[in-house]
Write a structure and sequence with these properties.
Herpes Virus-1, alpha+beta, 14 helices, five-stranded antiparallel β-sheet, 489 residues, metal-binding, cysteine-type deubiquitinase activity
């Protein structure tokens, strides 16, 4: 969002900023928390954001200081606009401030890493003490350090790593297999495996994903920098890249199918014959696209593989434009995706029977369900050359998402080969903020029936009600009964 209030700040009066010196102990001036610290541009005071104790908001209300900068992600936030802004680079003093904070962040990571970890250990320990009588929350989750507007990458990584089928594969993947993959200088698989092992060790409350992200930045430079990014775009890149790398295994050194074992399933991940990979076996599904000529009735069918489904959101009415009174369900979005659609004049079908382009209808069916169903809610829309966000709340089930109404049923054996059609929620990614080109990403994920909220380096335990109240952007559902790539359970 472009903020009109930035031009009101002609200079920054904080003496530490003017002298190019900022103390590296980024802690809230009120509660001394080092989590999610924001600096007031007007006076230089440090306060925590809404994910800690919300003292930055209190400072705004008391002093009417509206512009803050996140000390770690370096994003600029305007309380008057109630959103992150994207036009701050037009002003020299904001660029200077960002440069200073970036330098101090680097020093902070190098010199007081252990101190920050101890502080975050205390935060998580408080939550563990509250649940000390509960046996299901013994898992100690680790946060990911924000390396400068990397919240979208952190949210995706935490979601994937908390999908146990995904993590088990990388944990058991022999290092020799990684060595057999080409392009070792840009090997995402190898660095992702290291990161997952660190996350699952549980010895640290915060780890740095710098090695993994550096490899990704080499391949896709646009994911680096201070401009906001899209978590869905990054998720698609990660899955595509992993599939490409895993397809290049040296099969002479790895003859047998690699299988991963968990308490509940045994699933073939690698097939040396058709180059299926962990990505296709876990996330891969098949759509059937049916197009019918409205003149002669000729039908054509095409099968399209998918790793995720992008679902339209019903347009909100005036009374629920803020999402508070939304009655929309996730199944409504799925029904809209699979409903019969009559295509317009701009999408004429080249009918082989009529020998010319004709009006047509289109319908999607799910021919094969994936083991992990990834659903992307299309919250960002183009309208009159502008993108806007649909910030309505979509109600989604934690348990028992039934996909059977959306499976192709008119072909013998299709439903049986699909396996179980019931899914349980494993993780979600949430976009916070009203703007399209700005905002912040966090994620929720469950481990042994205990939900965690991942907000970069901060990890907190939460309940299902908190998860269900969130405005999901991407949802990950796990199938009750897994099937292999050839359809066997």
């Amino acid at each position: 969002m472009e903020c009109p209030h930035l031009k009101q700040i002609t200079k920054i009066n904080n003496p530490f900023i003017k002298e190019g010196l900022i103390l590296t102990n980024f802690e809230c001036s009120v509660c001394r928390s080092k989590r999610n610290t924001w600096m007031c541009i007007h006076c230089g005071i440090l306060n925590c954001d809404r994910y800690a104790n919300d003292h930055a908001n209190c400072h705004f209300k008391h002093k009417n200081h509206i512009i803050f900068i996140d000390c770690h992600s370096l994003s600029i936030y305007c309380y008057a606009c109630d959103d992150f802004v994207i036009n701050e680079n037009c002003y020299k003093h904001f660029r200077k401030l960002r440069h200073i904070l970036h330098r101090e962040n680097s020093q902070l990571i190098r010199h007081i890493h252990n101190k920050v970890i101890d502080d975050d250990d205390n935060q998580i320990q408080k939550h563990k003490n509250k649940r000390k009588n509960s046996q299901k929350c013994q898992f100690k989750a680790s946060g990911l350090r924000n390396l400068g507007n990397t919240c979208f990458m952190n949210a995706v990584l935490q979601s994937l790593c908390n999908i146990q089928l995904f993590s088990y594969y990388f944990k058991e993947l022999p290092n020799s297999v990684c060595q057999s993959i080409e392009n070792q200088d840009t090997l995402v698989t190898k660095e992702l495996r290291k990161t997952i092992l660190l996350l699952w060790e549980g010895g640290k409350s915060v780890i740095s994903p710098e090695s993994l992200f550096t490899v990704i930045w080499k391949i896709v430079p646009r994911f680096r920098g201070y401009q906001p990014q899209d978590a869905h775009e990054f998720l698609r890149y990660m899955l595509d890249r992993l599939h490409t790398e895993l397809s290049s295994f040296n099969h002479n050194q790895y003859q047998q199918q690699h299988k991963i074992y968990s308490p509940n399933h045994n699933i073939s991940i690698l097939s040396t014959n058709n180059k299926s990979t962990m990505v296709t076996s876990i996330f891969g599904g098949i759509l059937q696209n049916e197009v019918r000529c409205l003149i002669c009735g000729n039908e054509s069918r095409k099968h399209d593989p998918f790793f995720d489904l992008s679902l339209d959101i019903p347009q909100p009415s005036t009374q629920d434009s803020n999402g508070s009174n939304s009655n929309y369900l996730l199944t409504d979005c799925l029904s809209k995706f699979t409903e019969l659609e009559e295509l317009g004049e701009t999408e004429l079908y080249n009918c082989p029977t009529c020998k010319k382009k004709q009006r047509s209808s289109k319908k999607f069916w799910i021919r094969r369900l994936p083991n992990v169903l990834c659903l992307h809610l299309k919250r960002f829309k183009w309208s009159d050359c502008f993108r806007s966000k649909l910030d309505v709340h979509i109600r989604f089930p934690i348990k028992d998402l039934d996909m059977s109404p959306f499976i192709l049923s008119n072909i013998h054996g299709t439903r049986n080969s699909c396996g179980s059609s019931l899914y349980d929620l494993a993780a979600i990614i949430v976009h916070h903020g009203n703007g399209v080109g700005s905002g912040h990403y966090t994620s929720y994920a469950t481990h042994h029936d205990c939900w965690h909220h991942f907000n970069d380096s901060s990890v907190t335990i939460c309940n299902e009600d908190t998860v269900m109240k969130s405005k999901a952007y991407i949802l990950f559902y796990i199938r009750r009964q897994f099937v292999s790539i050839n359809g066997s359970t």
